[in-house]
Amino acid sequence: MYIIRSAEFVKSGTNDTHYPEALKSEYLFLGRSNVGKSSLINAIVNRKNLARTSSEPGKTITMNFFNINDEIYLVDAPGYGYARRSRTQIALFQEMLLDYIKTRASLKRIFMLIDMKVCATKDDIEVFQSMKRAGYEVTILLTKQDKLNQSERFKNVNIIKKQLSDAEIQMIPTSSETKRGIEKIHAIFEEDLNE
Question: Which is higher by pLDDT, 1 or 86?
């Protein structure tokens, strides 16, 4: 079990000249606006307000780096799929994201968050397919698991696997309320650091 001893916000940036020096492992958290990214990051590090939840969807437009135990960075990417963003902003976001992924050698894994209640949106499917095409390992974190009963969870997991056309994809149901799935995420950190 990975123990979180320290967790702090380090810096925000939009390109590699702004990003902090690499640590042993880095994890990118990616998801559409309102999927519950900040809440889940806070649950993972067991802090109330480390990752700030934006009052306005689509407001975050930088990569935010959180240093965990001086070993790991959790990187919070801006939420995608926000309707009021202009085409130029969307193109800049995609460029920033791909640039980050290509240049960060310590990036171990992409955690892509999908709302378990809503299932995968068109934007989720597009982003997932572009990450897979580029050859990156993606783990799906299904958020808001506590909002569904058991039969709905089972049904929606199967729907999402079909939507992503990947029956083998690793999916972890999570809840920032009940802390479901947090131990599994910690176990991934532990495993990667011991490689």
Answer: 1
